[in-house]
Amino acid sequence: xxxxxxxxxxxxxxxxxxxxxxxxxATIVRxxxxxxxGAQIICLKELFNAPYFCKxxxxxxxxxxxxxxxxxxAALATVAAELxxxxxxxxxxxxxxxxxxxxxxxxxxxxxxxxxxxxMHIPHDPLFEExxxxxxxxxxxEGAGTAGGFKVWKTRYATIGVLICWDQWxxxxxxxxxxxxxxxxxxxxxxxxxxxxxxxxxxxxxxAWRTAQxxxxxxxxxxxxxxxxxxxxxEPGTDxxxxxxxxxxxxxxxxxLAEAGTEAETLIANCDLGLIEYTRRNWxxxxxxxxxxxxxxxxxWIG
Length: 303
What we know:
CATH class: Alpha Beta
CATH architecture: 4-Layer Sandwich
Strand content: 25-35%
Largest sheet: 7 strands, mixed
Helix content: 25-40%
Number of strands: 18
CATH superfamily: Carbon-nitrogen hydrolase
């Protein structure tokens, strides 16, 4: 494409109330509202239509998974086509019997399902028992726009990459997605505080979470958008989790274009895609990479 280009994007920060049908209906209302305010690409939070069930190990939670394409994707594809918007839809995927993924579907502005990204890095921490529920994305190439399990899609409005939650701490994931041509990296997220730790560590945890992702924007010269969930979710026998929100959108210089607090909110920002070229000319990090010297990165530890 030639000439000035810009795109208006949105991140929907909210909680989950009710069952999956109720969550879908509430989300569609928020999507319509974001589109009415000019949003062309809209990203939902991680596992958008379910509670964060990974707080405990319960086999019945596998029943929350659905196939892709399935009823949720079909419903949102209809909305995308009607509103001429791109949607990023993170949900719990049943790929096959016994194979479940933490995934995000990209739907183009005509309702076409462009593809699915499957979370590559799977955490295992107290109340974040994701390894029980999710197989990691496979590190395979699936043609143009993919590399080692990472992907980009050329949508109607911009070339976008999607990484999910725990992926956001890994500079390798952001770098590969950027090298594939992403102009915007979306990070749908479900991250929160252990209430007992909040007073001592809460502010530092939020700052670290934002700083790591802003650093990816700066190091790669791309826009970054991270929608998180909000609200307290109880878990018997524990203090539960308080999802801290603080979603944001930043530019390739790491400047906030929009940022949220801890309540339900939709962030909307216009992204001047010409700023990518300008930033990379002045900070040519991609040009100056020593690709001949990076083989040691393939080791888990060098001692």
